[in-house]
Amino acid sequence: MRGMEIMNEIKAGKKYPFEKTTQLNIGNPQSVGQGVFTFNREVLAGLVHLPLLADGCNALSVDAKERAKLLSKKCTSPLGAYTGDSRGYQYVRECVSDFINKRDGLKGDDMSNYMQVHLTNGASEAVRLSLMGVIRNETDGVLVPIPQYPLYSAQLTLQKGLFLPYFLDESKNWGVDIDEIEA
User: How far apart are CA 5 and CA 145, in angstroms?
Assistant: First the structure.
């Protein structure tokens, strides 16, 4: 809200050492110059409208077409139908787990297991479901680092949990101050 106030002040002629603010609280990467996720949208289009995957149809890129064909073969129910497992398509969960293991160099007992991967339709849904699992009543609190993504405080309010903020220390590379956590 303060950022919007400052933008309105700038528009009204007030001087700041900058000319504009950038809203980073809404999770909209395109607003800060990230390109459109064309590949993902093409894959989804192919899964939703199977004629786009037909030989001779060139509406989709070759890579997106191949991925959509693979997913339609590996996933046991069509896009939009129930998956049979509330955690999401097993094949996709296996891919996520494999990615985590490769990215983080996990081996042995530390490895991610696809059985522990739960897919949601976005960050908001994942946070909502997670907080529903840990907030019993208004006496349950969750430690939230500041600065924070407003989704956390909003979901805590909706779940009637306690918002327990702690501040990250910029001088320690945005690290945690254990004394503040304990306090």
Answer: 24
